[in-house]
């Protein structure tokens, strides 16, 4: 629970009172945890698929007789903000 308190002033800068806001951040924390977990699962799946992807690229290159640049290393989701 976050609590925000702000003073309420009149035109002469006299304090009239205070505004108090209570913010429930439990859902945001839970959602953030779920996002982190899902991102971890996605990164693991990507890492598991990398060898198969590289093998398919090699097979395609051998069949077509052409070469292409190697795939970029690392999971593209690593650059997402957390």
TrEMBL record:
Compositional bias (Low complexity): 65-74
Biased segments, Acidic residues type: 50-59
Chain residue ranges for the region called Disordered: 49-82
Protein name, per record: PAC domain-containing protein
Species whose genome carries this gene: Pseudonocardia adelaidensis
